[in-house]
Model the fold of this input.
Amino acid sequence: MLKQAAETWQSYENEEDQKPQVPPFMETYERRGFAAARQEYLEARIRLGEEKFKRGVQWEKLNLAYLNAMLGRKKQAINYLQLAYAAHLTPLVNLKVDSRFETLRSEREFQELLKNMRLVEE
Done:
C-alpha cells in the first residue's frame, strides 16, 4: 500500500498553499522508495518552516517540533516545543495527549516540559 500512500501524499502536496522546494513526491518514491521520498519532503518542509520562523511566524514552532519528531530528531523537536511554550502558544494545552509527539514521551526533557506546564503531577 506504499504506492497508494505515496499518491495520497502527492495529492496533499499539490493542494498546499506554500509548497516546499522538493521534487514531486511520486518521482522520488518511484526512484528511491517511500522512506526516501518522505525524508526528502519532511526536510524540505523543515527548511520552509525555519524560513517562516525567522520571519516571525510564531506558529511555525509547533510545526517544526512535529516535523522534527517525525524525522526522529528528538532534541530539535523538544527545543521547538520549549520555544512554543515560552511563546504561550495555546495548542500546547493538548501536548500531553497529542499523538504527534508520541515518540518524545519517554524523553526526560519532554516530561520536564509537561511538568512545567502543569500537565502532569510532579
